[in-house]
C-alpha cells in the first residue's frame, strides 16, 4: 500500500478508449472468450465446409445406409498403425428383421488420408478445387454415420452449420436495421409518432412468435427455388428481433436525448441526423452490440424449429432443423441415435452465443470497475 | 438557530461516553486486493451530544458508522484489534466489534438502541409499503406493544416531527410525499423506538436549502427533548457548525483533527481542515475568492505513504510527511491534531 | 381502480382489432384462394374436371367475390356476433367443432406450464440471489444456460427416448388409449393430469430458465437498495426482511411478463405437440398451415393471441394491485 505511485499500467488504463476498456474486460471474461472462440471455429468450419468435408451434402453411400459413426482408430487385433484407419464395411442380413445392414469388417483396413482428391467444388465461388481435408483410401468415411439415404452426416452437419449460422447473421442484421430505423424514429421524435410505433410493436409482440412465422412461411409458394425460400426465411426471421430491439433503441434514445450533452449539441446547431449519428448512437453502441449477440440464439432456434416441423427451409437445402427432421420420433432415435448429433451443434452454438452475450454485456458496462 | 457552543467543557471527558470507538480498522476484499477505507479511527460520543464527522467522499466516514451498525457487506473485515464499546439502554456495555451481524443482540441494538437515517429520503423507504406499515414494523420490533398501540405511537411521532394531518399521512405511500416530508417521516421512524444514539448519514444533502434548515432545527429540538446522542455525517462544514458539539475531520480513513466545533471552525490547525473551511462561501465577505483544496483524493488502491494528505498539502515537508504517519497531538483546548506542523517534536517516529 | 380497468379493457379491444386485421392479412397471404383449394381438394378427388366456372361459383358461394374489406367484415362479424369461425375445408366440418375440446386442453396445458414455471423459478431465484456465489447459485446459472440453449422440442425428444428406454412406456399424448373417447369423468381427469406433467415440464423448461435469471437479477438489484439497508438498520431479522422487501419487488417483473410467458408457451406448443403427439391447438395450427386450411389457421391464431392479450390484461391489473406507484398514472 505504500509505494503505489501510478505505474505505466495505470496510465495506460486511464487513457484507454471506451473500446479498449471493453476489449480488456472481455479478454478477462473466460467463458465469453471460450464462447467466442467456439463460434469462430464453427463459422470457419461452416464457411469452408466444401473443403472440410469429404463429401457433398447430397452424396449417397448405398453400401452404408443408416450406418453408425465410424471412428478412426490406431489399433485393432491385427496390430498397431501410425496412420489412423477404419475397418471396411460388408453387408449382412439382420438375423431378426432380415433387413440388410452394414457391419464393419475387421479384416480390412481403410487408411485415413489428408488433402485427398474427391468431388470437385467451387471454393467460395472463386475457383474450382477437388481437394478435401481428409478422406479414406478406398470406400468412404462417415465420422457421424449416415442417414436413411446413406448421406454422410458429418458433411451434412458442416453444410447445415453454414446455412443456419448465415441465416442467423442475415436475420439479425435485418432486424437490427429495422429496429434502428423504427426505434430511432420513435425515440428521437417522440410524441404521436412514438405512440403509433409503440402500439404497432405491441401488436406484433402479442401474436405468438412461432405461429406467426408459421403463417408467413406457410405462404411461401411451393414453386419457389431454394434460394428464394432461403432469402424469404431470413426476411421472416429478421422480423423476430426488431420489436424487442426497437424498444431498447427507443428507451436508450429517450433517456439519452434528455441529457445535457444532447442539448449542448442541439444548441450549437447540430442537425437531428448529426445528433443521432454522432452523439446518441455512440453512447449506446456497446449495448446494441450486446443485444445483437443475444438475439442470435433466438433467430437460430426459430429457424431450427420451423425447418424441423417442415415450415422452413425445404430439402435439398441443408440446415440444422432439416437434419433434425430425421430424428423426429422415438423410433428413429432408437434406431439411429447418431441422427441426434446435429442437435449437439445447435445446443453448443446457442450456449456459446449466450455466454458470449453475457460476457460482452459485463464488459460493456462502463460502471463496472471489475468483475 | 445556532446552538450555544462557545464554552469548551472539559467535564465531558469525566462523563461516561455512550459510544467509544477505539482504533477501528475496516478492510474490504476486492479483486485488486485488500483496501482499507477506515484505518485506525478513534472517537467517542458523550450522552446527549452531537458528534459531526466531516470528510469528502471516500474518507471512510460512512463506513465507520456502518461498522458500528454492523451493516457492512460480507466482503468487509473489521480488524480484530478494533473496539466499539456501546452502553445499552437497559444498562451494560457491549463491544459491538465482537457481536455477529445477524445475532439477536445486534438486531436489538439496531433500531432499538441505535437508529439511522440516510441521505436519500426517497430510497430509504420501500415504495410498496405505506409509511405507517414500516413505522409500525420498527416499533413492534423494539417495543412490546400491540398493533393498535404501535399505530398510535407512529401517528404521535409523525406529529412531533411536524407532519400535518398525521392520521392520513400514516397510510400513505412514500411516493405520495415530498422529499422534505419523507425525511421527516424517516426521522419519526428512527425515533419512534426511543434510541439512545441516532446516526444521521448526510440526512440533508439531497434536500433544498430551506428544507435543510428545517430538518436540522427539527433534529436539534428533538435531541434536547429526548436526550439523545447524534453522530452526524456530512461533507458540509456549514452544516456541522449548525448542529455539532464536537467535530472530527476525516481524510482517507483517518481522523486528522478532532475537537469542539467552535474551536475547530474558528481556529483550524490541520492544513486539510483549513482547506475545507477556506473553500466555504462566507456571506460577510461575499467578494472573497473561494479557495478550493488543490488536487484530487487518491483512489483507495493508491493511498500515499506517510501522512495521506501530503500530496495536496502546501506546507508539506519532504522526507517527513511522506515517510511517517504523524501522531495525534493534544493541543490543550480539548483538541487532537495529526500533523507534523503541530507538535512536530514528539510526532516523528 | 375501475377507470384503470376500463382503460386497459379498451386497450385490449383496440389491440385485438389490429391483431384480427393482421391475422386476416396472413390468411390472405398464401397463393390462390379458399375456393381454388376447396375445388382442388373436393372436386379433383372425385375425379371431376374443375373449370374456372366451377371455381367462380364456389367464390360466390363463399362470398369470396367481394373485395377484401367486405370479406374481413364478414369474417370478423361472424366471429364476434355469432362466435362462428367458418368452415374447415380439410376436415369438412365447422371450425368451431374442430377446435372444441382442444381449447380446454390447451388452456390446461398453459396453466400447468405457468404454474410449474413460477413454482420453481420464484423461490429458487430468490434463494440464489441471497446466497450469491454459492454452489446453489452456480448450479442454477449452469441450469439456466442449458435451459436457454436446449430447445424444448429437443428436450421432449430426449425425455421420450429416455422414457422408452428406461420405463418402456411412451409419455406422448394427453390421454391413455382407454380414455381417449371416454366421456369426462374423474378418472379421465386424473389421467389427463398425469399426462400433462411431462409436456408441462418440457414447455416450462426455457420459461423457467428465463424467469430464474430475471428473479435473481431483480433480487440482486433490490438487495442493494437503500430501503433494504434501512430496514436492516431498524433490526428486522434477515429472512423476514428479504421476504417483505426485496422479494416482494422481485415478483413484479415476473407478474409483468405473464403475457410474455404465454407467448413463449404458445410459440413452442406446435413444435412440442408434434414430438409429444398432443391433440391441442398448436398441433391443429401446424396441420392447418401445412394444408393451407386458412379458416382454421386464422381462428387458432386469433384465439391464441386473444389468450395472450387477456393474460397481459390480467398482468397489468395484478401489477397495479402489487405496486402502489402504478395507480397514479393509470388514473
Task: Walk me through the structure.
The complex is a heterotrimer of chains A (371), B (349) and C (331). Chain A has 371 residues and is α+β, with helices and mostly antiparallel strands. In chain A, 58% of the residues lie in helices and 14% in strands. A 4-stranded antiparallel sheet of chain A has the order 1-2-3-4. Chain B is an alpha/beta fold. Chain B is built from 11 helices and 13 strands. Chain B has helices at 61-69, 104-113, 131-142, 147-160, 166-169, 179-191, 209-226, 237-243, 261-266, 271-278, 344-347, and strands spanning 19-30, 33-45, 50-54, 76-78, 83-87, 93-95, 114-117, 197-201, 229-234, 246-251, 254-260, 329-330, 336-337. In chain B, helix 3 packs across helix 4 and helix 4 (147-160) crosses helix 6 (179-191). Chain B is globular and about 65 Å long. Mean pLDDT of chain B is 83; it is low at 1-14 and 345-349. Chain C has 331 residues and is an all-alpha fold. Chain C is built from 16 helices and 2 strands. Chain C has a two-stranded antiparallel sheet. In chain C, a hairpin with a 4-residue loop joins strand 1 (87-88) and strand 2 (93-94). In chain C, helix 13 (258-276) packs across helix 14 (281-291). Chain C is globular, with a radius of gyration of 24 Å. Chain C starts with a helix and ends with a helix. Chain A binds chain C through residues 199, 202-203, 205-212, 214-216, 218-219, 221, 297, 301, 304-305, 308-311, 324, 327-330, 333-334, 340, 343, 346-348, 350-351, 354-355, and chain C through 14-15, 18-19, 22-23, 26-27, 29-31, 145-146, 148-151, 153-154, 157, 160-161, 164-165, 170, 259, 263, 266-268, 270-271, 274-275, 282, 285-286, 289-290, 292, 297, 300-301, 304-305, 308-309, 312.
